[in-house]
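2024-03-11 09:14:02 INFO receiving multi-entity request
2024-03-11 09:14:02 INFO entity count = two
2024-03-11 09:14:03 INFO echoing inputs for audit
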Amino acid sequence: MESRLVPVNAILDLALADGLNPAPLADAGWAVAALEVPVRVGGETVVCDVVLFNPQAGHLLVVEAKSGANLEPEQGRKLIALTPELLVIAGGITVPKPVPLHCEVLYACLADNADRICLGADEAGLRVPVLAVSRSDARLLRPQMAGPLLSAAFSSPAVWTHPIARIVPFDHESPAEAFDQPVRAELIAAMAQQRPSVTIRTLTEQAVRHFPIYGRAAQNRLQRAVRDAARRAAEAEPERFRYERSTAVSEERVAVLRSPETFDRRGRTQGYQAVWGSRAVRPRQRAEIPGQMDLFSELDEAERVATEEESDNGNEGDGDAQ
Amino acid sequence: MTSRSDLSAKVPVDGNVPAKAFVLEVHSDDPDAYLSEIAGRGNVQDTDDAFLSRVFTPSAGEFWVDRLQPRFWVFHTIGASVPAAAWLRDRVESRRDTDWMWLPSAHLRYIAPGALSRRVGTRFDGKRLVSSDAAARDLRVQLSGSHAERLLDEITGLPDYRSAVSFSNIEVDLSDPDLGPLRESVRRWGAFAAHGEQFTHHAQFVQTVISRYACLVESIEALSLRFVPLDTANGTTSQDADAGGASFAGMPIGIRFSRPIPDLPAFCEELFSSRAPFRLWGQPAVIDDEALVEAVDLHVGQRIGIELGHDWMRVYLHAGSCGNTVARLISNLQTRFDGALALTHPDLQDAAGLKPATALAR
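2024-03-11 09:21:47 INFO inference complete, emitting structure
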């Protein structure tokens, strides 16, 4: 994962009780409500990277995930000025219980940048806690500036037992190659669905699952990155895909020229294996065919027919060109 | 016309030939049109029951299709199981909105805890994913006898062998004071064969198994990652067209293996080779002890993100994707790599790993 994206993904992971990494935010009752929430405050807009809500405590946690080492004082002052009511409205957050609402700002950054972020906060007069994220853990700095719920949640560092989950795996500032895998996977999905083409707009929304969190400018950059990745993918497989510019009657798109779905079972598997690079196909032995004499074995042959893979996992062949 | 009560005569469970039931998971907004499409025009006959149809196929004969559960259709037949399965397989493989029901091992193990297991079978085939040094790479056990499941339980209790135990099929005897005796043989891909006295006993048994499985699939889908634009979530239109923002819900699905992956690149090459039974396409990026891949489930033509480590897997299922994809992955991993795997989310583990006390309650 790009280091820029570590802080935001760390916050999300700490709030997801998926049973892999520790989730002290989830354990304390917070859940992620929204990302990149624009809030109007004092006649200006400030964008909150992550807003978490704890419905039991009525506590909103606004997280500014710093990709670098610089803290913007003006942005910090706007964040401090936010009220729970503004956040609830801007984030479309449902408050299930009539509890008093509170909000708090937390900065998250890479551990390597934590000193500079803390210094920047002091210079700006921002009394905010900072969550420092390293390869091994996430620990709360300046806990005396955190509310009791937050400081209790991080009374000890959260030690990563697994890599941080990639909820936001890339963004509009990511390098071109970050888009290759998701774009190619979506083109394979289009092949599998036997779709004749997919527009770049649709491809972008599918390849960038978190597309809705971004504003228009970032979305345009994402669409350009997806277009470039799609063109690279099509150029690498000219017999299977073609990038087509927009015309008076059609949007720019990638046409699927040939899909393995049109082949028989064996050809289909090998056809997919051949796209963007061939794979070695190991020969394998044919499984035995059990008898079907009684009730227990009544479905054996049916099971072989329905689920057996011999017929589509054949020996090395010449791909889908048959 | 035929009514639902006539099914016991159309699909007798007390004849010489076992009654068979095959369950398909179907996504369709127009079930009637869909059934006509897959069966062929003119091959579908309505009945008095809006959810019950007769389908005639030239190769597999007659099916009685029960669509009472809109997503899980039951194809009843007394025809030969091989052509029936072949006909259904062709339907499944030619569509991206139809799949089998992929029962996890525990759904078979605890399929009817009040009943007596007569036969069990495991067909663990780890040749492609398990190290040749492993104590159990390939395990086939078939046992007949009272409480047959206890043998597999015993093997599961042996640390070296527990990861090679996965229930692939089971046969149980059930007895009900009103419905009489019933013997059911069940396969992990959602196929049933039955002998007994009353068809309704068999049909209810099938529906119970489906309901538990549906619970698992819905639990999986409840965790899918969802980003909804705030304008949509709030039911408003933003005045600031340049602004973004989205509500977020869901989380990745974690799987913890009881045995380590011996060779991560080789494991990935096999898992994402597009081959059956996984049928996952992907070009994994293996860095150090972690693999990342944007995979495509070729069964349904949908992308899923997968991360793999030494003894764990993380699956990113996105909104609108089918939970059956993950259920199938779990079932196939259990029979190909680790029969003792666990889901890290407690609700999912509960839904996939039924315990005796909860099995019948669902």
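2024-03-11 09:21:48 INFO post-check: Residues 260-312 of chain A form one domain.
2024-03-11 09:21:48 INFO post-check: Chain A touches chain B through 72 residues (CB under 8 Å).
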